[in-house]
Write a structure and sequence with these properties.
GO terms for molecular function: L-allo-threonine aldolase activity; transaminase activity. The chain is of the alpha/beta class and about 325 residues long. The chain contains 13 helices and 13 strands.
Length: about 325
């Protein structure tokens, strides 16, 4: 039986070529600053996004949490959309790691605007937490892979600069956004104080994210990473996978997006599907008449794995281990369900 794993773009396994790159990496003790492959990855990613420096971390949760710690003081408040990964899926880390409260907005599929943010910035008053940070996500996971363009982001960056707020990007899937919007990665450095990029999502590396910022922020970030237990030794074996992914797995994201389109179009024709969100990137969210768990069980029986994101909502995520024949198979199963 054909099997298809549409649960997440984190389920990918390193390709033979990626494994070869990992095995031949030059490594050293990165806590001593002696791993040249880690340094190369950090410099490469920073240059790509027009940032001064970078830090390699085990996860996107850690890069986001370090960024929040770098850009806030305890008793501060950050602003994010109510779907934000930093708020929903990082275990309450904002409060635990940084002692910061969160002001949530109701964006359009997770996308917020300067007009929405402006009235939520607290005035100077001892009753109010000090608003110091805005966090955007691009693409928005819970928005079904919805994207901001840099034109959308520019007014938010202007507002933040004007009000003395920092602006951080949770760019777990930033390359998916770039493939869709055609904006240039290098321009991101002009708008954001911090950018987190996941290597372990659509890019297909087994582990790792990088946080990009100015040199002083990254210097402090190294201190925070150490405190969190994220100082890694011969991490160049992992960084090599990241470098390989940046060199070889960015352009192919278009394939995942095309596959998402095919599935979304097919789902739109089915009478047991109530609605399908636009499949802008590699995620397809759709609502079902029957409970999601019931549909998922039926799909599991046919070898298709996926997850629910609500009682009647199912998520398909496309990635580099889903090939055209598996997409075709999925379409045939959906039609026959
Ligand atoms: C996956 C993800 C992260 C980071 O998750 P880790 O599993 O900790 O690497 C951050 N933000 C978004 C939107 C994500 O989808």
């Amino acid at each position: 039986m054909i099997t298809v794993d549409l649960r997440s773009d984190t389920v990918t396994k390193p390709t033979p070529e990626m494994l070869a790159a990992m095995m031949s990496a030059k490594v050293g003790d990165d806590v001593f600053g002696e791993d040249e492959t880690v340094a190369a990855l950090e410099a490469k990613a920073a240059a790509m996004f027009g940032m001064e420096a970078g830090i390699f971390c085990p996860s996107g949760t850690m890069t986001n949490q370090i960024a929040i710690k770098c850009f806030t003081q305890p008793l501060d408040e950050l602003i994010a959309d109510q779907t934000a990964h930093v708020y929903r899926y990082e275990g309450g880390g904002i409060a635990f790691n940084s002692g910061v409260s969160t002001r949530l907005l109701n964006g359009d599929r997770g996308r917020i605007t300067a007009e929405m943010i402006a009235p939520e910035i607290n005035a100077e008053n001892i009753h109010f937490p000090n608003t110091s940070l805005v966090v955007l996500e691009n693409t928005v996971n819970k928005g079904g892979g919805s994207c901001y363009t840099l034109a959308d982001i520019a007014p938010i960056a202007d507002l933040c600069r004007d009000k003395g707020l920092k602006l951080h990007l949770d760019g777990a899937r930033i390359f998916n956004a770039l493939a869709n919007t055609r904006d240039k990665a290098v321009d991101y450095g002009k708008y954001f104080n911090g950018v987190s990029v996941c290597l372990s999502k659509g890019l297909g590396a087994p582990i790792g994210s990088v946080l990009l910022a100015d040199a002083a922020t990254i210097k402090y970030a190294r201190r925070i990473r150490k405190v969190l237990g994220g100082g890694m030794r011969q991490a160049g074996f992992l960084a090599a996978a990241g470098i390989y992914a940046l060199d070889n797995h960015v352009d192919r994201l278009q394939i995942d997006h095309a596959h998402a389109h095919i599935l979304a179009e097919e789902l739109g024709k089915l009478n047991w599907v109530i609605s399908v969100m636009p499949a802008d990137t590699n995620i397809v969210l759709f609502d079902t008449v029957e409970p999601a768990d019931y549909i998922i069980k039926k799909l599991n029986e046919k070898g298709i794995q996926c997850m629910s994101t609500g009682p009647n909502r199912i998520r398909f995520v496309l990635h580099l281990d889903v090939h055209p024949e598996q997409v075709e198979y999925t379409v045939s199963v959906l039609k026959g369900l």
